[in-house]
Design a protein that fits this description.
Helices cover 15% and strands 50% of the residues. By secondary structure, the chain is α+β, with helices and mostly antiparallel strands. An eight-stranded antiparallel β-barrel has the order 1-3-4-6-7-8-9-10.
Length: 212
């Protein structure tokens, strides 16, 4: 009888490699500190062209996020964030209602969350480029945002804080936000490119478990 199978030494090596990968991943997690976005000191804003000649700026008021910050190597850090689409505020109630539920816009009841999950971070000049999955209106695309980092520092209450500034752009058409109208003079009412600007702080509260 001929027996087919994988040699024991191959299985042992594969198991060792698997355990090594798990161990390295666990070590990376243990070396990072968890910072939570401080909503009171964070602004999530965006800008879109309006009728070619102007720009409209808005913000989102409801959001959350965490940063697994590795003080020894920032590029090993991770970022996760969630924005509630229904919290959009462009300083116009009628326009905001259209953006929340209008055809070709957010459809916030169906797609309540806009999310970002980092996949890698690279050093670039004085800052960083954060690569990750950006999901909006049920569509996920790879994006890259520029980021700068300041801190950490201790606040008067003993908490550790870091500050971040994130800039970048996405094309809303890529995510199914397709509403528009042509102007008689040429051009469109709403631009396709959405400029994103996030300024904020993240906090690790005093007394949080120490990481080795």
């Amino acid at each position: 009888m001929i027996k087919l199978g994988i040699p024991l030494e191959v299985l042992t090596m594969k198991k060792a490699i698997f355990l090594l990968i798990i161990g390295l991943s666990l070590a990376a997690c243990l070396s990072a500190d968890t910072y939570t976005i401080d909503k009171n000191h964070t602004r999530v804003a965006f800008t879109v062209k309006h009728m070619v000649i102007n720009k409209v700026t808005g913000i989102f008021r409801d959001f959350s996020g965490t940063i697994e910050y590795d003080p020894k190597d920032v590029t090993k850090s991770t970022v996760n964030g969630t924005i509630k689409a229904a919290s959009i505020d462009t300083n116009s109630e009628d326009r905001d209602n259209d953006l929340k539920s209008g055809e070709g816009w957010f459809e916030a009841n169906k797609y309540p969350d806009i999310t970002f999950k980092s996949k890698s971070i690279e050093k670039k000049g004085d800052g960083y480029v954060v690569h990750g999955d950006f999901t909006m209106h049920g569509v996920t695309k790879d994006v890259a945002f520029n980021a700068t980092l300041a801190g950490p520092i201790k606040d008067p209450y003993g908490n550790s804080r870091i500050a971040v500034e994130v800039t970048g752009a996405v094309n809303r058409q890529d995510y199914g936000l397709t509403w528009n109208h042509k102007l008689d003079s040429g051009g469109l009412i709403a631009g396709d490119e959405v400029q994103i600007l996030i300024n904020g702080e993240a906090i690790m509260k005093a007394g949080a478990p120490a990481k080795p």
